[in-house]
Amino acid sequence: MRILAANNGHLVASKTRDARPDTFTLAADSRFRRYGPIDKHEARQPDVTGQSFAERARKASQMLRSMDPEKVKQVIEFHRGLNFFEALALAKREGKLIVPNDIHDRILTETTDEQYLRANHSVWTGTLVIYEAPDKKFGKNVIFSWEHNKVKYSFSFNVPEQFRGKANCALVIEHPDFELMALGDNRYELRVDERSVHQVESFAKENSWHRYDAETGIPHGEAVKESSDARHLWRLKDSSYLGPVARDYYFDYRRVVGLGNWPSGGYGVALWPI
Asked: Which residues lie below 8 Å from residue 16, measured CB to CB, with a gap of 6+?
């Protein structure tokens, strides 16, 4: 997993046994690129005959949310070593849902099979997030640019009018309610139906522990002490971002919500047939 940051874009969250509960340290080295053996599981298909792909996706997401996380683990399938472009292409080709952030959050925080988590949870989620630098208002466009292996990339997004002028909020869109249109030279434009955009108010400004939005799992509000009801945000401090939420498992990463990751980085993805 690649993190866009000043030190070659890597994130490490380290914590000692005798650390205070609200201590969370970011360091220069990361194990986010670790991959374990990935097992695929048989997936059952919901009864969605006669519905559009978007309708089937919403029903599939609702079904996953209603299931016990231990059951969800049995019906989703994992693929590793994919960048976000490859993950989107695979999901489209196979007609499958990219599992959203809040589902991964429940698996990571409510199940205890560490072997399963370590093997499978280094993933791009199907939850896409757009934010501006702290206190900066949304304008007409958001552009997120990065360089990976000497190749330059950019994502752009035309901000719907109802969100322009707003600061310290995040815009969230779930797969498959968005499309990345290739413009050439590794430039992409994000296109969405604005009716599918969910706004998270009081998006957290700092990389620390926060309460999280019940619908999307995105941290927001003031910083709080570490607890089972809090998530640790990793965001870009001084710039905009447009990309997927990334989740990982290793030590205490299970409660870290990654929102500053290079979409071109190889990671993994969890899918469910719809």
From this structure: none
